[in-house]
Design brief:
This protein has 403 residues and is of the alpha/beta class. Among the domains are: 30 residues, no CATH class; 206 residues, Rossmann fold. The chain has 15 helices and 12 strands. The strands form 3 sheets. A 6-stranded mixed beta sheet has the order 3-4-12-9-10-11, with helices on both faces. A 4-stranded parallel beta sheet has the order 7-6-5-8, sandwiched between helices. Strands 1-2 form a two-stranded antiparallel ribbon. Strand 9, helix 9 and strand 10 form a beta-alpha-beta unit. The termini are far apart. Bound molecules: pyridoxal-5'-phosphate and zinc ion (ZN).
Length: 403
């Protein structure tokens, strides 16, 4: 476990999230030779596709007890109807909303909670726009740990709140934004002895990188040319890049996708860096978007994600809430995929690029759909036609259909 900035090594057997010298985030570095040796005798490709198919590439002890809900192994759905509309030859959606609690967070949480148990932690915590708390609550219950989640008051989608409460977490509503809640959580870890499972926790990122391995495997070893992905705190985009880069360095694949990070216009500090060429992040004070999962003004992982996107040869840009909602509706009506708004932001970014003529149409493109539409029923209902009420007669139905 090393600092992303100064490279200082940190003990993996201790609960730390920031460099003791310079305060930057930590990351797990793979021992390439050891990984190759383990892969050589392994039978990865014969196991069912899931996060734990890649166990040898994850930083958990060989004898550790794994806490799993069978996360990962999510479908890579070929979207021909949508592809035809956009004039794209090969379009896929990686539907990570089909994970056990309905978002990609489960990939990170199964590894994070497994690690928390290794470290002997009894209480886990996070700040959350919703999905992290839903996922953490479920896995904490599974592992018999106490769970405290901090959410921004009044800003969490109904389904996500229901999950965190139902799984037995102590849900605390904070008067402030997600960024304010994360601030409190980070301070509390030392003082109150709670283990933090936000994406500043490098083990979360390790679990999430498996989505990139899966995409390569699902495409029979030919990675896509482009990966479109929403960026909130920036953990998942960094995780995908880590996965693609590791698979390439291990020689499992021989190329990697260009990463296009997509943010909502009202909370786009990372996209702004790419637009202006700035080399540090200027936080957005009052982030706002219908896509609550990416309503984040001060992304904790900005350095990781900016580096990841640049290394891939990509960039970050924005879409409006209107574009996000149109993409969400399109995905649901044309492809049968019900994503929450943040889970449609990547597609909205792709549509925008295609319309601007910025994409070679013979490209193989994957859009990551990060969360399930049932998470946020209010937004879905508000942009759909309300049910019509009729008498219970065939006549009434016929008349209604004529009209
Ligand atoms: C957490 C989340 C995101 C943002 O991921 P980051 O790692 O914070 O960039 C996007 N979409 C959904 C549905 C999420 O739950
Ligand atoms: Zn450092």
């Amino acid at each position: 476990m090393r600092c992303i900035e100064c490279g200082k090594a940190h003990d993996m057997a201790k609960p730390v999230y920031a460099c003791s010298s310079c305060g930057n985030l930590l990351e797990i570095r793979m021992d390439r030779a050891a990984a190759l040796a383990r892969l050589a005798k392994g039978d990865l490709q014969r196991r069912p596709i899931s996060v734990w198919r890649y166990r040898e590439l994850l930083p958990v002890g060989a004898n550790s007890k794994i806490f799993s809900l069978n996360e990962g192994g999510t479908p890579l759905i070929r979207c021909d109807a949508l592809g035809r509309e956009l004039g794209l030859r090969e379009l896929y959606v990686k539907f990570d909303g089909t994970n056990p609690t309905g978002s990609f967070k489960d990939r990170g949480m199964t590894v994070g909670i497994t690690k928390a148990a290794e470290l002997g932690m009894k209480v886990v915590t996070c700040a959350s726009t919703g999905n992290t708390s839903a996922s953490l609550a479920a896995y904490a219950g599974l592992a018999g740990m106490k769970c405290v989640v901090l959410i921004p008051e009044g800003k969490v989608a109904l389904g996500k709140l229901a999950q965190a409460m139902m799984h037995g977490a102590l849900v605390v509503s904070v008067k402030g934004s997600f960024d304010d809640a994360l601030d409190v959580v980070m301070k509390s870890s030392d003082k109150l002895g709670m283990y933090v499972l936000n994406s500043v926790n490098p083990f979360r990122i390790e679990g999430q990188k498996t989505a990139a391995f899966e995409i390569c495997d699902q495409l029979n070893g030919s990675p896509p040319d482009y990966l479109y992905i929403p960026v909130g705190n920036g953990g998942n985009s960094a995780a995908y890049w880590k996965g693609f880069a590791e698979y390439e360095s291990l020689g499992v694949v021989s190329s990697h996708p260009i990463i296009r990070g997509i943010q909502a216009e009202g909370s786009a500090p990372v996209a702004k860096m790419f637009a202006t060429g700035a080399d540090t992040l200027t936080p957005v004070k009052k982030p706002d978007t219908v896509a609550t999962a990416i309503r984040i003004g001060n992304p904790a992982n900005w350095k990781k994600t900016v580096r990841a996107i640049k290394e891939s040869g990509g960039s970050a840009s924005t879409v409006t809430d209107g574009e996000i909602l149109a993409a969400q509706k399109k995905l649901a009506t044309v492809q049968g995929i019900f994503a929450e708004p943040a889970g449609a932001a990547a597609l909205a970014g792709l549509i925008k690029d295609v319309r601007a003529g910025e994409l070679d149409k013979s490209s193989r493109v994957v859009c990551v759909s990060t969360g399930h539409g049932l998470k946020d029923p209010d937004v879905a209902i508000s942009q759909s036609v309300k049910p019509k009420v009729i008498d219970a007669t065939l006549d009434a139905l016929g008349k209604m259909l004529e009209g």
